[in-house]
């Protein structure tokens, strides 16, 4: 059974099928087949509107029947236009003599009209000579206004038909917008011709002819991206002809010019038989509504030089002659261009533009906020403000950005590398899509609107109108809204990321020469910024920016800013060299320079770490992909031990070759050390966090190395023992720095029925292999990198004792021979790698030694004696005790020995003291009343600062040092790593010396029992 007519109308998109069915039976449509009508309505965006308009047109112009009866092959333009624009349907009803426009079948790949031809058509409509330099209309008043408006709307119909028939409306959109702008300019030209004729009756033909008036298009009209219906923003410039300048005083010239401008506006916007076109808005002129309507060029320039605000220069970015005296208009364009392109250097310019965008958003009525296509978040203004700000900031030094329309500006910004190609593509496509929605909404009734409809029938009509000729009917209201919301989200994301770039403020504050990075400006700037070798730095700059590649263009854009950030570091020359090496290592990686350009933090962070840390600079050179972490704090947070171990196990499972497998393990450790250093420099983790993260990286590497060593031993003979690696010292306390070795002891336990001698031999083999695997250097080598050396000197009997002992041997030794210093060393013992069961048993054994029920007085004296001996014998010859962070006064050793003495005395009774970490033990001692709280806080502060200085030495120079530097440059670098502001090296020095002096007093009073 054939579908009913009602169902077919619903399928076509009719919102009132009963009404439509009645219209199909109207007298005017008699004799026209229903199928022919339905086929025509199928291409109409709004079939109800199209059907009503068709009935009315046939009532007034029966000759249209022939076109309709010919079927869609000929009538499609008529149905498309009537269904898309109720207002243009009304125009054709008022002016049926222009129905011939719908008889032409537009191309699916339409072209724009010639602007000169549009101007000639509009001028002839009012009887003016297009060849005259200052055309004068032959008719005036209502007759002229009507003729002008009818001619305009006919050309508007022709454009709308081509637009609606385009295979891709978004591709055609810039052409349509440009033609709308040209058509508006032509209408203003004709309106000015009418105004001249009218003014001649008041001022005389000669005086009127002697006053030149240039109409400067602003906003969308100036940029040739006008909407179907929009205010046309203009500025008026006048001048008197040279021959008459002496005869026309300025006041009369201004009076005539004002009369001409007023008459021009009246011709296009006053009420009449043919409705007004659009409002001519001159409120962007100097002083706005309070300023004179017309000014001379000199008056304009004087105002812009002295009084203009930043937003006015942003508006002038679009300024273009559109009507009147072309020569005067072009002189205006040339005169204001330098003002526009230097405006970004005004104080607070970037912030003022950003604040203006926020104000626009904040002033949207609440009821409209979610429906705004233009002003709301993710709307057209987000794209336009972003693009204009980038143009004004970077256009000072790059003339390729000096274009008016948004789509061309996006392309130029992408070509110059100021925004990424993918971002540019998304910005461009999103902008075209939003403009297309705006166009179709306005085309419907030729009314200014930027609000998405609410009703389903209006949304359905908009969805159909926004599609190309091959897509009609393929979009529902739901799909339209989904696409619109997705587009808004993406635009907002791009806007917030690009519009608020920190680079923009910095670039805006550079001089044009500095922004261009000319050799002369660069040399002078390098010297002024404090580079020690400007000529050497220039060689790096030239290497980075040479050529015409996109990479070189991006470097030229970034380096003027990066040079300043590098100069904020202690070693800008070294930082620039490191930046060059990192950049060359990353080659043409598409994300790298884009990250530095777009990220809110990455570029500045990279510059600071390269100038302040040899350790990081060297590690980044061999792991340059890690630069990507700088843009996201989450990526800088150290990986947990479990995550590292899972990654290592995964890699080991895919590599049978021990050397290849171990190289991957060491690479993971190197990567994590770099991550920790970057997080440390960015203040994402504190001193305790650094020690723990570095200890985790070491432990993961030892776990991997032990797995490889045991696999290699098993390949030679069956395993007959279990091996345990126990961390000692600072490694055991998870308090290591960038330059720390790993103190360990090795334990093994023969498997049941295994030969003890064979087990001992195999354990030695595994331990030897383990150490060799970890200490093999990576290629390429990194000077500042710490190779993981396992130091077993804390084992029973020290260097004279066996490297590996069985669990039973340890138990026997500790039962019979353990010395006080060994019990103290065991306070830091922590399982690092090996069998869990063996670890549990060994730690139970250790607890009996390190947590004695009672610490005899003799052993306390022995601990004090050993500490005094360490201070006198191990402090390097010539070292200043007040500056040695490890063994000096109030340093790491003082705090740790005091804490360990408290643990030996009281940990058996107080389980809270049973920790391998210094600060938690110190805190527990204070909470338990074993140490005064104020003393504990002072000792903790001294320990943290000494630890930070120790790590800072390695981070800055790449070399381990336990001495607070005396060199001002080194001390400055250490101070910055410790969190001091630039120039506060002396403050760090004084604070350290004062703090450790007081910490030593506390230490002596409690540790030695002195008063």
TrEMBL record:
Keywords of this entry: ATP-binding, Magnesium, Multifunctional enzyme, Nucleotide-binding, Nucleotidyltransferase, Transferase
Domain of life where this protein originates: Bacteria
ATP-binding listed as a keyword: yes
CDD domains in the record: NT_GlnE_GlnD_like
Glutamate-ammonia ligase adenylyltransferase repeated domain location: 78-334, 604-842
GO MF entries: nucleotidyltransferase activity
Residue intervals of the PII-uridylyltransferase/Glutamine-synthetase adenylyltransferase domain: 355-499, 867-1007
Pfam families: GlnD_UR_UTase, GlnE
SUPFAM superfamilies for the chain: Nucleotidyltransferase, Nucleotidyltransferase substrate binding subunit/domain
Protein name: Bifunctional [glutamine synthetase] adenylyltransferase/[glutamine synthetase]-adenylyl-L-tyrosine phosphorylase
Organism whose genome encodes this protein: Sinomonas flava
């Amino acid at each position: 059974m054939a579908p009913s007519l009602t169902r077919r109308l619903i399928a076509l998109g009719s919102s009132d099928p009963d009404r439509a069915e009645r219209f199909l039976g109207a007298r005017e449509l008699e004799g026209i087949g229903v199928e022919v009508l339905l086929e025509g309505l199928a291409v109409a965006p709004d079939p109800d509107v199209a059907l009503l308009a068709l009935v009315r047109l046939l009532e007034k112009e029966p000759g249209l029947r022939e076109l309709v009866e010919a079927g869609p092959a000929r009538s499609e333009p008529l149905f498309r236009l009537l269904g898309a624009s109720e207002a243009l349907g009304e125009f054709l009803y008022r002016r049926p003599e222009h129905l011939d426009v719908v008889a032409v079948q537009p191309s699916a790949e339409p072209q724009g009209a010639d602007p000169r031809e549009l101007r000639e058509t509009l001028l002839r409509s009012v009887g003016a000579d297009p060849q005259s330099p200052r055309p004068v209309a032959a008719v005036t008043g209502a007759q002229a206004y009507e003729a002008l408006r009818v001619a305009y709307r006919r050309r508007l119909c022709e454009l709308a038909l081509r637009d609606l028939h385009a295979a891709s409306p978004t591709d055609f959109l810039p052409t349509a917008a440009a033609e709308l702008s040209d058509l508006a300019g032509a209408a203003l030209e004709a309106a000015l011709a009418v105004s001249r004729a009218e003014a001649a009756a008041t001022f005389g033909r000669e005086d009127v002819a002697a006053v030149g008036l240039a109409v400067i298009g602003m906003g969308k009209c100036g940029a040739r991206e006008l909407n179907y219906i929009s205010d046309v923003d203009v500025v008026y410039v006048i001048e008197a002809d040279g021959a008459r300048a002496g005869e026309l005083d300025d006041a009369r010239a201004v009076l005539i010019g004002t009369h001409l401008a007023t008459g021009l506006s009246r011709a296009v916007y006053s009420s009449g038989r043919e409705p007004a076109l659009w409002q001519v808005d001159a409120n962007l002129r100097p002083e706005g509504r309070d300023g004179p309507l017309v000014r001379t060029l000199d008056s304009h320039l004087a105002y812009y030089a002295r009084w203009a605000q930043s937003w006015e220069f942003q508006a002038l970015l679009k300024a273009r002659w559109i009507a009147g005296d072309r020569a005067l208009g072009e002189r205006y364009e040339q005169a204001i261009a330098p003002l526009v392109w230097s405006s970004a250097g005004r104080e607070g310019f970037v912030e003022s533009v950003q604040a203006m965008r926020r104000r626009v958003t904040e002033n949207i009525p609440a009821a409209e906020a979610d429906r705004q296509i233009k002003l709301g978040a993710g709307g057209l203004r987000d794209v336009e403000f972003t693009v204009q700000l980038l143009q004004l900031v970077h256009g000072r030094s790059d003339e390729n950005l000096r274009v008016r329309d948004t789509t061309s500006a996006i392309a130029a910004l992408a070509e110059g590398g100021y925004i990424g190609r993918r971002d540019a593509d998304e910005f461009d496509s999103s902008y075209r899509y939003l403009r297309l929605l705006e166009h179709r909404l306005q085309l419907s009734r030729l009314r200014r609107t930027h609000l998405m409809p609410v009703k389903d029938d209006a949304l359905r009509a908009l969805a159909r109108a926004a599609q190309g000729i091959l897509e009609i009917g393929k979009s529902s209201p739901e799909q339209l809204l989904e696409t619109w919301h997705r587009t808004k989200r993406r635009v907002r994301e791009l806007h917030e990321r690009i519009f608020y770039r920190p680079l923009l403020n910095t670039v805006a504050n550079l001089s044009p020469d500095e922004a261009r990075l000319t050799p002369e400006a660069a040399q002078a700037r390098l010297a002024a910024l404090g580079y020690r070798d400007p000529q050497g730095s220039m060689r790096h700059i030239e290497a980075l920016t040479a050529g015409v590649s996109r990479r070189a263009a991006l470097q030229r854009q970034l380096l003027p800013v990066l040079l300043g950030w590098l100069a904020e570091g202690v070693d800008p020359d070294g930082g620039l060299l490191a930046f060059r090496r990192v950049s060359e290592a990353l080659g043409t990686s598409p994300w790298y320079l884009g990250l530095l350009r777009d990220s809110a933090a990455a570029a500045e962070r990279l510059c600071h770490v390269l100038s302040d840390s040899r350790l990081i600079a060297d590690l980044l050179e061999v792991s340059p992909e890690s630069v990507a972490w700088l843009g996201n704090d989450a990526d800088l947070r150290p990986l947990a031990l479990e995550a590292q171990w899972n990654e290592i196990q995964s890699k080991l499972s895919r590599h049978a070759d021990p050397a290849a497998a171990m190289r991957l393990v060491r690479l993971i450790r190197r990567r994590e050390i770099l991550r920790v250093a970057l997080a440390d420099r960015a203040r994402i983790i504190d001193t305790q966090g650094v020690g723990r993260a570095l200890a985790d990286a070491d432990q993961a590497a030892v776990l991997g190395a032990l797995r490889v060593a045991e696999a290699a031993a098993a390949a030679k003979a069956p395993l007959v023992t279990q091996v345990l690696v126990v961390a000692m010292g600072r490694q055991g306390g998870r308090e290591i720095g960038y330059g720390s070795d790993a103190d360990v002891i090795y334990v093994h336990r023969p498997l049941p029925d295994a030969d003890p001698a064979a087990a001992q031999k195999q354990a030695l083999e595994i331990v030897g292999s383990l150490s060799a695997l970890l200490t093999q250097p990576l290629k390429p080598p990194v000077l500042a990198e710490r190779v993981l050396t396992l130091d077993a000197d804390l084992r029973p009997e020290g260097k004279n004792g066996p490297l590996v002992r069985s669990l039973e041997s340890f138990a026997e030794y500790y039962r019979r021979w353990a010395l006080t210093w060994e019990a103290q060393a065991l306070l830091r013992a922590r399982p690092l790698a090996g069998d869990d069961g063996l670890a549990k048993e060994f730690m139970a054994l250790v607890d009996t030694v390190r947590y004695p029920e009672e610490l005899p007085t003799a052993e306390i004296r022995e601990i004090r004696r050993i500490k005094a001996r360490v201070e006198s014998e191990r402090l390097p010859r010539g070292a200043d005790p007040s500056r040695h962070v490890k063994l000096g006064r109030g340093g790491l050793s003082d705090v740790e020995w005091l804490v360990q003495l408290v643990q030996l005395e009281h940990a058996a009774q107080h389980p809270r003291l049973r920790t391998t970490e210094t600060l938690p033990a110190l805190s527990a001692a204070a909470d338990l009343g074993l140490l005064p709280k104020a003393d504990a806080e002072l000792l903790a502060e001294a320990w943290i600062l000494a630890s930070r200085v120790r790590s800072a030495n390695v981070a800055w120079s790449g070399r381990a040092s336990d001495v607070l530097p005396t060199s001002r440059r080194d001390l400055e670098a250490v101070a910055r790593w410790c969190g001091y502001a630039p120039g506060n090296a002396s403050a760090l020095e004084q604070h350290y010396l004062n703090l450790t002096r007081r910490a030593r007093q506390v230490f002596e009073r409690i540790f030695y029992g002195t008063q």
